[in-house]
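Encode chain A's predicted structure.
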Amino acid sequence: MENSPAMRSFETWLDSFINFEKLPQKNMFWLDTMRFFCERLGHPENSSPCFHIAGSKGKGSVSKMIACILQEAGFSVGLYASPHVSDFRERIARPDGFFDDAVYEGAAAELMNAVQSAESEKRIPRTLTWFELVTLYAFLCFRRARTDWNVFEVGLGGRLDATNVVTPKLCCITPIELEHTDYLGDTIEKIAAEKAGIIKPLTSVVVSHQSSISVSRVFQQAAQSADARCAFTDDIIRFRDISYTDDYRMNVCFESPLFSRPVRTTLRMLGSAQAQNAAQAALAVKTAIPSLDEALIEKGLAKASLPARFEIVPYRNAAVVFDGAHTVSSMQNTLSVLTALFPERSCHLLFALAADKNAEAIVPLFRGTFHSITLTKPGLTKHGDLERAAAACKNARLSFTCESDFEKAVHNAFKKAEAASAVLLVSGSFYLAADVKRIMNFC
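Encoded structure for chain A:
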């Protein structure tokens, strides 16, 4: 946040609480404290109807697409998403920009007063985490902004995530992968069960393509147990076109019995996974608001974009692609788009992973794609394991440079790309993308 002493003070206060986004720990997740503060604050989580989005990949994109469709339909919309890349307010904003300063500053004062008051009364069930505070802050911001609809992206898992105090009009489950196994379970079915924890009684859920029938069955059974209506995109969406344009965009056309005609649009967000995300977002909003015209869906999807989701930025005579891919499937999608858009240009990679990511499975995907690979830390604050990434490169028999000095690694990678008039992919972590942008003055 810029130029506001009140907001700088608020961010400093937030940073005094434990932040599991940067250094995860076990056994600190339950909802009693969130429920306590929601009640104390007058239940701001219920101020407007909402969508709730969980999944291993694509949930940020689906959230943004839903928010853009709703805004195109004339609604005032609040979007809660993570992580932020350049500005903390990216987490709590409108689809097309930030709220007025008065919204952020008023909500900050309200939250700080509530927490400090509860602390003085010694009534807090457990010390709040950074993400819980930010989630409460989002609730307060949206209430102050008097939004018509809100869209909440889950932070981690679903069942015990801080956002899971909302009662959504509809929830979405994006593709599930084996991730965060220390916290969510050691099988994909256990992870799916945690994600399914956002499904509420007598609501609707839209589930995207999943890797196995067993995962889909988890969601079907959870929906049945909650008497929730469950729709799978694989069953009711058919794609008619996915193709790239000359200006690095993507034409998409899909149809469903729920739509009065095929939905045709041109996305800023690229890759087959984003086509799937667009279809899920469209289906979700059409399910929640059946009268919504398809033209509004098309216009909303066309406006959706997110930083560090195959974000192409020119740099002198090179091109830089910022992408936060950090799972096997998301990296496969990123590399597929990279080779499709830049078939004739050499490509270089600046790569870093958080310590809890699967370097051994991701790194072999790089074979045959990059002229150089530079390994470093995932930004200036996120906890990483550089030695593990290096070992994965050695095992995959890849040539690479390992540089623990973050700024030196960034400048070296950019010099290589510029010298070759090449494409530089900055990938593996949103924190990496954020700090590279700051160092290279892209924000």
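The chain is about 40% helix and 15% strand.
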